[in-house]
């Protein structure tokens, strides 16, 4: 799992499906999932029902280049693993059920084909992946660790392998790998002989090497029916060979000069061959190719022209003739075991899957049209048929009168300090909107639905057409003015905006192409460059635009190829530009002179040297997925939080000394629970917005806010010291939290003075701006008075509201739903929320909208649990039927948050500022006034402590399903407060113990014990408590039999109880899981 | 080959083949690029700009790869060099204290000869195996079999090959042509996709 932190993504897809130009197709062994890889590096999982209904389920992110091949990677039927390889040499092992990345690696060479092979020695089975690609060997890779074990090498004329097939012979118990090199030489390796010494890393040489004169070989396949013949498809002909001595049996030409791209055996006497434009032909083989017939091999040795031509039997063609921008990918899949369809699956450049079922094709006359497409669906169609449409983040603000489609968001940046999302759109306008508010509108039902133009927002107009990139420099470095927002557009201009006043400060027109990227130079540049931003344009130019001088101080514009990467050598005053062809240009920033232009090994060395000098200043522009990956690693929420946490601790100790100095940079600590990241799968697509919720940060924020209410008793320095001293007994984390709380309290008093000044300045700007706007809506004005101020009193609660409302399993307990809506102020989602799952190394899977649309259940019951629900019923009920890892994360989040909210005084989401109407909200100088108004001013820390102490027993006692509510009665607190707390407690209880019963085991995937156990000592107390309660509940649920099973499953991994030598595999997995635990 | 002031002579064995992988890879990449381009009928009409861009992307990827294979030789570790087939390609066989690597860097064919000496097991020197590099310097250490070895001398010979120079120039020219075509198409496509608001 993604490190230690509990981060959950929620994705807003928008109406346009992501571009999915399919480059590889795979059907999993159970026949329930189709996997497609695309040229942009994403992988799509599609659910396939027995009736051949197809519904896209999830999109997997992680590869940075085009997917070259997909293969299954696991032989067992209870888990479905696949491996994917990309053009840039990455390999990734995925769990198909939930899209988790299990392992990933990167090699220098590209794989073009992977086949899974299971070695068995005695009772031991080892999965291996045989890979071939742009190298002359076949690499044998371990299917669980993705390590290269050894290779199959050619002694005679080694060359790249263009395709490969594994032949299993029942007769000889000998498995052979048959491969064809790009020069048309057939190579044979025997692989069974080496199972005895699996440790061996010596290369294996080929048994046989025979030229068979096949140019441009596309595929090679072995007849599984007769086990006697091989089909080799080349671009202009196809041939059948005897698998015993590789002699030619028959040959077929191409039809109408088309190019073949692959083929396979449909049955013992039929082959299917498909072309580059997506047509497939079924041929009946002549008798000389059929081992069952008397005339088998009767034609061997005759000239190719004399062979009996095979009979064309059938033609399958695409139904719709929409224009494709590249050849479609076709693959044929046999049924296996319980799954008897023979399917021809074709994926094309528009993200469409065409499926033909050819199991029961009756014999037809020659040349007759074959069966029509059995099933055809594209990602966009799947998006279109949904009602309501998949939401985009600011759809409600982007309605155009003349069209049904909302304006597309083409660039976005999130400003966590203000909780604002800035969206650039295709008409050139930029919208600044509170992120949580707009997400609530899109995801949840509520009274905000009645208000037009909600939430309050600001529109900046200046670009003449599409905004292509946005940058908020202050977020990257504090040296920039926090008012400045930079935007670039297709109109070649870069504009500086003042976000507080909405004013356009300056327009740069220095580039001769649309702006593709805006970057911030690193810290240690010269003073002049420090106040610049760096702009990259599609005319292959790079500019340094000074925000202070309002002019371009350098324009580097002689690059011949698109710019792929910008790096910095601040110590030498160099700007290093890497182009897509591998050349590197070194520019002197001060003079604007081109210092050097190099390529080859020197270029690589220069780029690497920049990395060593300043690892943080790397910015790759090559691919959106790279950016995403970097964004995720760079803005790693955990790292951010740790840093903030650390800062707070040091600040708190030095507080009295440095009170006055830090007035400018109040820690942005309180806004990290939500991050909004825009991603594009393809540069031409509109933005997709992913909301990352950090549960731990949210809990800290909630507690911080709770403790930071004006409480005069604690603010004196003596108390401060006493409090921090007493908290030493707790864990270090708690100390930190307490310190943060105290710090916040002290800060409140300091802030009084600062804020007064700050706000008065801004108020004037507001005034002028407000006059400019014709808008008369009082609410609009009300919100205008406090836009983008430093503190937002409701951001945390809004985030929690959005998150809890999305997580709650609605519709299972009507009473509880009522309580949630009325008392707790949660809102029902419009439709199923698309969650995501983060896994190792920045890999991410995002559920597609309508992932749980009815695709009928497979007979053997291995389909999505939520599948059979009617659409209306499918709304809500949470995501507890998707996979065990998802359930674990979601349950942990909702229970720990509910417990946190329960421990707070009257933590209800009602009292939303929607209700306040035109009255101006309180100034941030009294930040908690609103909350204090709703809640009675009670809450000394003593009472809080009591509530909290009570909360823990509630969690543990809950498993008895006896929530008499008598426990909280011991608190002589207020009635409302009690009711709210009880609501939270019920909510937590339902998700902790009642979910399996309510949902039924059919639709509930139980949480993973090991994931819970790993959080038994989580550094966040609330998460820890939730994990413990969940683990106990789950252990109780699975009863003795289940517990015994769990012990049996884990016992081998405990080395001290083992008598015999631990098998290598077990040690390996044990160490792996151990290492994961450590990290 | 100078060693202890005596000349050693080696020749490639007659009975074995060894291929300079860089050349083979470059050739295969080029032939893939040619296949992509020549695969279509001459009368084929491209229908959309996106189609051409996609084709150009694929062709340029192959051409860039081909050129990069020649301009950036592989960074190998010393054990990898020792294990490579080249070591066993000579008659008479190479003495155990010599390693040979042959590669192409831009338009030059380079031969490096590493002279090795074994490190004593009880040596006080800090053993640190060298990573991958195109050219290892004297003092680079590695472990081969059970032995620890250190490079004592490095000899490098380069030879300019004129046709490699030509090939690189053609690669650059063809890549530029492709890029210019792409740039032109994108200018037009952004013009066509212009939507007034």
UniProtKB/TrEMBL annotation, chain A:
Stretches with biased composition (Basic and acidic residues): 768-782
The entry's keywords: Phosphoprotein, Repeat, WD repeat
Region Disordered, annotated ranges: 757-782, 912-946
Residue ranges occupied by any WDR72-like alpha-solenoid domain in the UniProt entry: 1014-1048
Keyword Phosphoprotein: yes
Gene Ontology terms: cellular component: cytoplasm
Keyword Phosphoprotein: yes
SUPFAM superfamilies on file: Quinoprotein alcohol dehydrogenase-like, WD40 repeat-like
Sequence intervals crossing the membrane: none
Biased composition (Polar residues): 936-946
Pfam family, one: WD40
Residue windows of the WD repeats: 22-49, 460-507, 556-597
Record protein name field: WD repeat-containing protein 7
Provenance organism: Carlito syrichta
From TrEMBL, chain B:
Main localization, broad class: cytoplasm
GO cellular component: RAVE complex; synaptic vesicle
One Pfam family linked to the record: Rogdi_lz
Annotated localization: Cytoplasmic vesicle, Secretory vesicle, Synaptic vesicle
Similarity section: Belongs to the rogdi family.
Protein name (record): Protein rogdi homolog
Organism: Carlito syrichta (Philippine tarsier)
Source taxonomy: Eukaryota, Metazoa, Chordata, Craniata, Vertebrata
């Amino acid at each position: 799992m993604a490190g230690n932190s509990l981060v959950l993504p929620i994705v807003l897809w928008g109406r346009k499906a992501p571009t999915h130009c399919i480059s590889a197709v795979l059907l999993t062994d159970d026949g329930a999932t189709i996997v497609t890889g695309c040229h942009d590096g994403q992988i799509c999982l599609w659910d396939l029902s027995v009736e051949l209904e197809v519904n896209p389920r999830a999109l997997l992110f992680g590869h940075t280049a085009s997917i070259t091949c997909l293969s299954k990677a696991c032989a067992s039927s209870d888990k479905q693993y696949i491996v994917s390889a990309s053009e840039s040499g990455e390999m990734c092992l995925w769990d198909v059920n939930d899209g988790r990345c299990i392992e990933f690696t990167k090699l220098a060479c590209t794989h073009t084909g992977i086949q899974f092979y299971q070695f068995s020695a005695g009772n031991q089975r080892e999965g291996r992946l045989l890979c071939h690609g742009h190298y002359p060997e076949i690499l044998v890779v371990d299917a669980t660790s993705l390590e290269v074990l050894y290779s199959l090498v050619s002694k005679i004329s080694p060359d790249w392998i263009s395709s490969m097939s594994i032949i299993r012979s029942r007769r000889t118990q000998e498995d052979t790998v048959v491969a064809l090199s790009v020069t048309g030489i057939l190579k044979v390796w025997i692989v069974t002989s080496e199972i005895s010494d699996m440790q061996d890393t010596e290369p294996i040489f080929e048994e046989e090497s025979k030229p068979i004169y096949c140019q441009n070989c596309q595929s090679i396949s072995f007849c599984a029916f007769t086990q006697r013949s091989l089909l080799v498809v080349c671009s202009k002909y196809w041939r059948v060979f005897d698998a015993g001595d590789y002699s030619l049996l028959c040959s077929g030409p191409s039809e109408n000069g088309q190019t073949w791209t692959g083929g396979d055996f449909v049955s013992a006497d039929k082959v299917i061959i498909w072309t580059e434009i997506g047509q497939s032909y079924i041929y009946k083989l002549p008798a000389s190719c059929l081992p069952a017939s008397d005339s088998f091999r009767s034609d061997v040795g005759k000239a190719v022209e004399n062979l009996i031509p095979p009979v064309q039997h059938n033609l399958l063609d695409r139904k719709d003739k929409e224009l494709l921008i590249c050849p479609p990918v076709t693959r044929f899949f046999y049924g296996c075991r319980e799954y008897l369809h023979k399917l021809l699956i074709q994926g094309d450049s528009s993200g469409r899957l065409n499926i033909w079922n050819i199991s029961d094709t009756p014999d037809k006359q020659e040349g007759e049209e074959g069966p029509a497409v059995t099933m055809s669906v594209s990602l966009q169609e799947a998006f279109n048929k949904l009602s309501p449409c998949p939401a985009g983040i600011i759809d409600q603000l982007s309605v155009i009168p003349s069209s049904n489609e909302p304006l597309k968001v083409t660039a976005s940046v999130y400003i966590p300090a203000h909780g604002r999302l800035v969206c650039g759109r295709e008409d050139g306008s930029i919208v600044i909107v509170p992120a949580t508010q707009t997400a609530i509108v899109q995801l949840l039902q509520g009274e905000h639905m009645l208000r037009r133009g909600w939430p309050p927002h600001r529109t900046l107009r200046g670009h003449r057409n599409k905004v292509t990139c946005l940058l908020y420099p202050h977020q990257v470095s504090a040296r920039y003015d926090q008012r400045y927002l930079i935007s670039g557009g297709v109109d070649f201009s870069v504009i500086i905006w003042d976000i507080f006043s909405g004013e356009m400060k300056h327009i740069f027109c220095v580039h001769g192409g649309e702006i593709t990227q805006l970057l911030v130079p690193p810290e240690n540049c010269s003073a002049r460059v420090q106040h610049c931003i760096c702009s990259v344009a599609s005319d292959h130019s790079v500019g340094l635009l000074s925000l202070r001088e309002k002019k371009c101080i350098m324009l580097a514009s002689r690059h011949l190829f698109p710019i792929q990467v910008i790096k910095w050598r601040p110590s030498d005053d160099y700007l290093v530009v890497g182009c897509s062809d591998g050349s590197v240009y070194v520019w002197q920033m001060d003079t604007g002179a081109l210092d050097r232009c190099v390529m080859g090994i020197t270029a690589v060395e220069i780029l690497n040297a920049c990395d060593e000098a300043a690892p943080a200043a790397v910015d790759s522009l090559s691919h959106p997925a790279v950016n995403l990956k970097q964004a995720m690693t760079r803005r790693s929420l955990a790292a951010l939080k740790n840093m903030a946490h650390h800062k707070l601790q040091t600040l708190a100790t030095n507080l009295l000394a440095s009170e006055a100095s830090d007035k400018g940079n109040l820690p942005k600590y309180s806004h990290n629970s939500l991050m909004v990241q825009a991603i594009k799968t393809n540069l031409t697509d509109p933005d997709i917005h992913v909301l990352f919720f950090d549960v731990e940060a949210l809990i800290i924020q909630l507690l911080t806010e709770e403790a930071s209410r004006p409480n005069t008793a604690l603010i004196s320095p003596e108390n401060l010291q006493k409090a921090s001293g007493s908290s030493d007994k707790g864990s270090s984390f708690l100390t930190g939290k307490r310190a943060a709380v105290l710090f916040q309290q002290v800060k409140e008093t300091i802030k009084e003075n600062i804020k007064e000044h700050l706000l008065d300045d801004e108020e004037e700007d507001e005034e002028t701006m407000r006059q400019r706007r014709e808008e008369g809506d009082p609410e609009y004005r009300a919100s205008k008075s406090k836009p983008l101020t430093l503190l937002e009193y409701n951001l945390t609660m809004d985030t929690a509201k959005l998150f809890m409302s999305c997580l709650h399993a609605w519709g299972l307990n009507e009473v509880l739903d009522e309580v949630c809506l009325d008392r707790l102020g949660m809102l029902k989602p419009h439709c199923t929320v698309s969650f995501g799952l983060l896994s190792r190394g920045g890999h991410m899977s995002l559920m597609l909208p309508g992932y749980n649309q009815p695709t009928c259940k497979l007979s053997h019951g291995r389909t999505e649990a939520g599948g059979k629900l009617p659409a209306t019923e499918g709304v809500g009920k949470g995501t507890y039927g998707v996979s065990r890892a998802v359930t674990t994360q979601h349950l942990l989040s909702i229970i720990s948050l509910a417990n946190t909210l329960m421990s707070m005084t009257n933590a209800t989401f009602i009292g939303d500022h929607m209700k306040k109407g035109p009255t101006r909200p309180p100034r941030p100088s009294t930040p908690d006034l609103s909350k204090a108004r709703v809640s009675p001013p009670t809450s000394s820390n003593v009472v809080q402590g009591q509530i909290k102490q009570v909360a823990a027993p509630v969690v543990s006692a809950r498993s008895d399903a006896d929530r008499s509510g008598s426990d909280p009665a011991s608190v002589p607190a207020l009635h409302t407060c009690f009711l709210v707390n009880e609501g939270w407690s019920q909510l937590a209880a339902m998700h902790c113990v009642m979910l399996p019963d309510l949902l039924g085991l059919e639709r509930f995937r139980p949480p993973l014990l090991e994931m819970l156990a790993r959080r038994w000592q989580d550094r966040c107390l609330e998460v820890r408590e939730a994990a413990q309660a969940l683990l106990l509940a789950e252990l109780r649920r699975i009863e003795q039999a289940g517990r015994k099973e769990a012990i049996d499953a884990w016992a081998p991994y405990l080395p001290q109880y083992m008598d015999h030598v631990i098998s290598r595999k077990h040690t390996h997995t044990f160490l792996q899981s151990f290492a994961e635990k450590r990290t | 080959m100078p060693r202890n002031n005596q000349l050693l002579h080696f020749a490639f064995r007659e009975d074995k083949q060894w291929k300079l992988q860089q050349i083979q890879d470059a050739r295969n990449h080029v032939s893939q690029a040619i296949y992509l381009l020549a695969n279509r009928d001459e009368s084929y009409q491209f229908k959309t700009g996106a189609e051409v861009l996609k084709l150009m992307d694929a062709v340029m990827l192959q051409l860039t790869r081909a050129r990069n294979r020649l301009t950036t030789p592989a960074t190998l570790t010393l054990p990898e060099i020792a294990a490579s087939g080249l070591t066993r390609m000579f008659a008479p066989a190479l003495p155990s204290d010599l390693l040979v690597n042959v590669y192409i860097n831009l338009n030059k064919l380079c031969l490096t000869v590493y002279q090795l000496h074994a490190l004593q097991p009880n040596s006080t020197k800090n053993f640190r195996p060298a990573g991958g590099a195109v050219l290892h310097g004297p003092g680079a250490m590695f472990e081969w079999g059970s032995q620890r070895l250190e490079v004592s001398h490095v000899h490098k010979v380069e030879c300019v090959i004129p046709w490699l120079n030509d090939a690189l120039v053609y690669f650059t020219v063809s890549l530029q042509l492709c890029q210019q075509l792409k740039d032109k198409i994108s200018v037009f496509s952004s013009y066509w996709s212009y939507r007034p608001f």
